[in-house]
Amino acid sequence: MKTPRLPYHQLAAESFNLLLAAKKVLFNGHLGQGFSALIWLRVSQINGCHFCIAKHTGEAREAGEAEARIATLAQWRDSDAFTPAEQAALEYAECITHLVDGVPDSVFLPLKAHFSDAYIAELTVTIGFMNALNRIAISMYGD
């Protein structure tokens, strides 16, 4: 595995430890460990964070996600491995990750048919959180 350009986890230890604590809370939250790992993996795929892709692929496996779901995640629209609720969440994750002009109602409202407000709020934080971690890792590990 590549080493970071700077030992950022040591140089910014207090902040980094808070990020790790937040990750633990989210990983054990409403989404469940398996689906959290899949959301993090999909966001990392979009952002091209190779370090994060490897990490979250392993986390998804450890959480019991089926290989078929992991293997077809980038093509989830063409896969029958994901429920309509999961598809709505993945669409939302992609929309937030590619965010330019906000999240349209056509992406947000389907979430309401499948999830509680608390779940949607945690999903939103989970997606935003992973986008932030991807950017930290991409900056520190380079290309």
The portion of residues forming beta strands comes to under 5%
Q: What is the string of helix and strand elements?
A: HHHHHHHH
| Rg (CA only) | 15 Å
- How many domains, as an integer? 1
Figure out the total of helices: 8
Let me know the number of strands.
0
Q: What class do helices, strands and sheet pairing give?
A: mainly alpha
Helix content: over 70%
Domain Carboxymuconolactone decarboxylase-like: 22-94
GO molecular function: peroxiredoxin activity
InterPro entries: AhpD-like, AhpD_core, CMD-like
Organism: Paludibacterium paludis
Short description:
With 143 residues, this protein is an all-alpha fold. The chain has eight helices and no strands. It has a single domain, classed as AhpD-like.
Descriptive account of the structure:
Residues 22-94 form the Carboxymuconolactone decarboxylase-like domain. This is Alkyl hydroperoxide reductase AhpD. InterPro entries: AhpD-like (IPR029032), AhpD_core (IPR004675), CMD-like (IPR003779). Pfam families: CMD. GO terms for molecular function: peroxiredoxin activity. By secondary structure, the protein is mainly α. The chain has one domain (32-141): AhpD-like (Up-down Bundle). The protein has eight helices and no strands. It has helices at residues 8-11, 13-27, 33-47, 50-62, 67-71, 84-97, 105-114, 117-141. Helix 3 runs parallel beside helix 6, helix 3 (33-47) crosses helix 8 and helix 6 crosses helix 8. The longest helix is centred in the C-terminal third of the chain and has 25 residues, at 117-141.
